[in-house]
Amino acid sequence: MSKAYWEMIADELHAAGWSYGFSTVVDTEHGLLHYAWADKETGHRFSAQAETKMAAFIELQAICSKHNAKLDKAT
User: What is residue 64's three-state secondary structure?
Assistant: First the structure.
């Protein structure tokens, strides 16, 4: 059985030192909303909201990658 794309992103986040989570909620106005979040022991925490689980993880990956790039430039 192959992994879903969002699971591959989650594995990449974990390998980069991020803890992550995911939740789906029902909004009476918008239907299902998907939330993904990630944090590091350094205290950095980010979240993303989207209409699909995959889109939430793609957005979260972009946010975390941008943060990591800023840290790399600073050192």
Answer: helix
> Is the model's pTM score more than 0.85?
no
pLDDT over 80 (residue 54): yes
Task: Outline where DSSP puts E strands in 16-66.
Answer: 19-27, 31-39, 45-50
Report residue 11 as tokens. 């594995």
List the one residue out of 15, 67, 71 whose CA is nearest residue 46.
67
Describe the chain by its helix, strand, coil percentages, rounded to 5.
45, 30, 25
As beta bridge partners, residue 19 has 39
| Domains in the chain: ranges and CATH | 5-74 (3.30.160.20)
